[in-house]
Amino acid sequence: MNVLLLGSGGREHAFAWKLAQSQGLSQLFIAPGNAGTAQCGTNVNMAVTDFSAIRDFVLEKEIALVVVGPEDPLVKGIHDFFLADEQLRNIPVIGPQQEGAQLEGSKDFSKKFMMRHGVPTAQYQTFTKETLAAGLQFLETLQPPYVLKADGLAAGKGVVIPHTLEEAKVELTAMLADAKFGDASSKVVIEEFLQGIELSVFVLTDGVSYKMLPAAKDYKRIGEGDTGLNTGGMGAVSPVPFADEAFLKKVEERVVIPTINGLRKDNIPYVGFIFIGLMNHAGEPKVIEYNCRMGDPETEVVLPRLNCDLLDLFVATGKKKLSDFQLAIDPRTATTVVLVSGGYPGDYAKGKLISGLDVKTEGVVFHAGTRGQAGAVESAGGRVLACTGFGNSIQQALNESFAAANAIAYEGKYFRRDIGQDLLNWKGF
Ligand code: AMP
Ligand code: GLY
Fold first, then answer.
1. Which ligand does the CA of 114 lie closest to?
2. Segments forming the whole domain that contains residue 140
3. How confident is the model over 373-423, as pLDDT tens digits?
4. Which residues of 166-195 are buried (b: 16+ CB within 10 A; e: fewer)?
5. CATH number for the domain including 35?
6. Atom 4 of ligand 2, nearest CA residue
7. pLDDT tens digits for 22-38?
């Protein structure tokens, strides 16, 4: 079967790497891909939101399955586009239709969904330009820190957490009255700040049944000790000690099942991943956000732990036969350490030649922002590579990740040396 995978990050290299191991795969195409995905299939120079180019390509290459990595094409309706086209209609797309993608595309939509279906989450209210005065008043009733979220997609920058009432008021005004995030902040969700430790939970659903994939912890800040600006993610660990069987059972019963049932009750068709970002507050889960895709860099530790054929899993999903599929999970720990360009998440240089990629470890070096061919690979983005290691303990896995992270070199390389350190001696809450 020929497969088209959309995207170009570390997540997509991990998808491509796993799909390339599949018995049933004939040809794998990745659009636009990176230097890593080019080792697993054929890169195609096509934007993930150029639906008409994608249509032509899918027909020309007899693609039988499309896997969508990032949220953008989903929120813009790529799955709906396929369903509306007579020739594309029967080609399964892994990724929800536009309405389901609103779980990520609109914070207001997702909060209302959680409230309607009894999914535990922070208390909140939504404000617009017209209700700015009420929003400012509402802030006065809350305790710091304050959580302000632009309703729409804002390239991961739409959540602001001011620590004083003054800053919160200035920020709310900037978002609503001055359109700080453009259209994305025409509505702003203000919510209660949740204490605890964050977990990324991944569910794959065919709209009827679902499978929970391994959960992971992501490290979002640029600086060691969780300091500095937010990034796309600087590292990940799976599994994690604070998400034991009892906690994950609570997550399944209180969050996953009400979410899947809620989609059905609301008549929202959903085929694809649901990424649930949640807070573990003293053993109780509360949802921070939904995403309609896999996480990055979490995918680089989740997929390597799947001991089953990923293409078979997707085919079962497309056929709504997920309930018949047997997931097999590797009990070992996987860790990943992300190497970024100096200056990220601010301005950074591209085009730096990368050496040391042939490092020999048991792990896998996934490419994110890279371009070029083997022997002449250079940086092409903020997050450049994700060094995944395996082990019977977090420490063992980290040893592999850091061995690769140290062996690889390019001008301006930066990575966090404290990934996973908070979990090594985890003693509970
Ligand atoms: P989001 O874009 O929704 O993932 O939010 C970005 C980050 O802000 C999350 O990963 C959390 O670390 C933090 N965050 C969002 N909402 C809350 C909340 N209600 N309480 C505490 N932290 C939050
Ligand atoms: N690592 C978080 C995300 O993919 O949104």
1. 1
2. 124-191
3. 888 999 999 999 999 999 999 999 999 999 999 999 999 999 999 999 999
4. ebbbebbeebbeeebbeebbebbbbbeebe
5. 3.40.50.20
6. 295
7. 999 999 999 999 999 99
